[in-house]
Amino acid sequence: MDDRHISPDSSDDKLLPNEPTALPNEPPTLPPEPPAVPNELFIETPNPNDSSEYWRQSSVSSRDFSFSSEPLSSQTTFRRSFPPPPPASPSSIPYRRRISFLSLGLIFLVGVLIIPWLAEETVYSLNRGAERAKAEIARQLLAELPEPERRIPWVAKVVAPCVVGIRTLATIGEDGIGMDVGSGVIVDSQGYILTNQHVVANARAIMVRLNDGRVIEAKPIGQDQATDLAILKVRETNLDAITWGDSRQIEVGDQVVAIGNPYNLEQTVTSGIISATERYNPIPSRRWIHQAFLQTDAAINPGNSGGALVNLKGELIGINTAIFSETGGNMGIGFAIPSFLAKKVYEEILKYGEMKHGWLGLYMAPSPNLQANSPRGVTVTGFLPQSPARDAGLRIGDIILRWNETDINDPLQLSHLVVLSRPGEKATVEIVRNDKTIKIDIILGVRPVEL
């Protein structure tokens, strides 16, 4: 064959020299595909110019584009290939197991500690809710029931959430330890409890049981030996606090209700009447020479000390303190500190940290001068060292008839009025000296702790 060029205009259907002959119906040869690029994105799209449902696959990378013709579906799909993750290091497997065991142990510990606490708190919350509901219903009924015999059950429901049981571990002698029981009254919703000083005296630990069943530790805030009162504080707040009443409005014969924990029998309720008021030092062996007690025949027994004595409105009128008994049990003669004095001591301790009492520094005896329609008076028989009364001008033999307009009929009565006064206050006494009545102003001193 001669080596010549065939013109495109020539009618002869000749091939170019050295051109390979294509076979009939053989698809054209495509260039080779580029090598795969790691982490490349394949975008599959239909070919709009191909009516025979052939499609083109575009391999897109950050460096170039390449195309290949393959059969396609009618939808576009996206695929992304990633390199396989590296195999886990054999040394990391025990570490992961240790983490798993530690997590499981922590979860178990949290469950053991938290779940019982949540269950207990749930029970206490339900009990508190039920008791508060009863108390609220009782308050509403008390406002509607005038008959005394029908009021006592509702009074008990109102007051019960405000009364607590007290247990103490106390030092006895030099090495002995004993447990004592008593009662207390919640007087402030922030956790302040009023009780008797002799209940918590020398206590190493004090535990309080609330009406809903919780037992919590209490800390002493202050105490006053002269009036046998003490204040405790618990960490709990939003407690049910009792309503203060005025013991000065109480009369002999008024009905009262006593609530406490005698012999550790919780929430024991008894009722009776006021048998007497202003009982001074009813039990000489206890040396309550500065007290003026309410006397009641409501049953009071050991363990009632520090509990509540309330009127038929559910108001606190006294703190149950002592009983007169020849057997150790109730004989129908009980004594309660009047709420007027209890509230004064409570407020003084919270404000000043202690209860300071006034002091005259003298000895007294009942006056022999008995005259009708006049105060009996008390006779001054001696003075203590640094006596404020002697410094003010009183003399042995003076008869004190009045203290700040209050008639004096008994030495214990005068002692009680002096104890209620604060040191530094001025008091006016009316005395009889040489058949003449004169008035003297006295600036009270501080009563020594040992007296």
List the main descriptive attributes of the protein structure presented here.
alpha+beta; six-stranded antiparallel beta barrel; single chain; elongated; 6 helices; disordered N terminus; 451 residues; 25 strands
Which SSEs are present, and which pair or pack?
Blueprint: E1 41-46, E2 54-60, E3 65-71, E4 77-80, H1 92-142, H2 148-159, E5 163-172, E6 176-188, E7 192-196, H3 197-200, E8 203-209, E9 215-224, E10 229-234, E11 243-244, E12 255-260, E13 268-280, E14 292-296, E15 308-310, E16 315-323, E17 334-338, H4 339-352, E18 358-359, E19 362-366, E20 378-383, H5 388-392, E21 399-403, E22 406-407, H6 411-420, E23 426-433, E24 436-443, E25 445-446
Parallel strand pairs: 11-16
Antiparallel strand pairs: 1-2, 1-4, 2-3, 5-6, 5-8, 6-7, 7-10, 8-9, 9-10, 12-13, 12-15, 13-14, 14-17, 15-16, 16-17, 18-25, 19-20, 20-21, 21-22, 21-23, 23-24
Helix content: 10-25%
**How far apart are the termini?**
150 Å
Biggest sheet descriptor: 6 strands, antiparallel, barrel
Please, what is the average pLDDT? Answer: 78
**Number of DSSP strand runs:** 25
- Tell me the strand percentage band: 25-35%
What Rg, in angstroms, do the CA atoms define?
48 Å
Write down the oligomeric state: single chain
**SS-derived structural category:** alpha+beta
Summed up, the helix count is: 6
Q: Identify low-pLDDT runs.
A: 1-23, 37-45, 50-80
Spatial strand arrangement across the major sheet: 5-6-7-10-9-8
